[in-house]
Amino acid sequence: MLRICAINLYSLACILYSSRVTIEKFLADTPENLRGTILAFADSVKKITAEIGTAETSEAGSQNTFGENQLKLDVLADQIIFGELEACPPVAIAASEEQSNEKVLHADGEFSVAFDPLDGSSLVDSNLAVGTIFGIWKGKGFIGKTGRAIIAAGYAIYGPRTTFTLSLGEKPVEFTLQKNGEWKLSLAKMEIGEGKMFAPGNLRACAENKNYLALLDFWAENGYQLRYSGGMVPDVHQILVKSKGIFSYPGSASCPPKLRLIYECAPLAFIVEAAGGASTNLETSILDEKVLDLDQRTVIAVGSQKEVDRFRKFLTV
Ligand code: AHM
Ligand code: MG
Question: Which domains does the chain have, with CATH numbers?
């Protein structure tokens, strides 16, 4: 009885603590330049949230340099983030999935940032959740580095709620945007354990990639729960929230991997590994993959350690 009371009191204390912690308070002891850079992304997300509910969902009539049609919302989100970063002196270099080249923003800055302004563009018309992903890297530029140069990474989800998940190398935390514009801590110290949940990207590859088909059979035959939205950000976020599972996106000859190392995979791998999970590109952790090109694509699996190990075993027979 006493133990139950103590647990309830502890839960109550946690809820009370969380409801009082804003992102500014959470970052109070973070070095000023890093704090300012993170807040530039948090402020961008607020502005994107203000637009996303009523913005036009049509195409912008332009393509990014990778030949993909851009939505008006892709362009708008990109402009909003660049606007915030231009006013953030610690950011030396910014690279966006929507731009061909990295941009020098402040020659004296100490960080490089890589971001996907609106991940999941193809979900916008059907009103499924989309996201923003970012990584803050030490030093200037990305080429020749690995994700080990990331010092903080985060992502936002524009769903029924707007949330902002962040890791500075420690257990990730989630903030929720309030009506008054404040970010309030909503989940503290997220951890990933083990469990049977799968989010299988690029199933088209199974036609040629029989190893992936065999893994799919394994998941189906062993009672795994399918949870796949088609948006990498919510698909990975649920692994942190449910503390279990795997997100995968391998390839085949006709359906190669499409997810990008610096804009999408490395920041999300940084967050998942900080939560006690794992990542792989079938050879190494995603965080050990060297950046040779800003548009580099990679095979990825992230999530529970045992599930990521299983993915590697099945796909490298
Ligand atoms: P995008 O950056 O062009 O929006 O593409 C990334 C998205 C991911 O969120 C998702 O995992 C993947 O594309 C799904 O793509 P597909 O449905 O083509 O397999
Ligand atoms: Mg993307």
Answer: 12-187 (3.30.540.10), 197-315 (3.40.190.80)
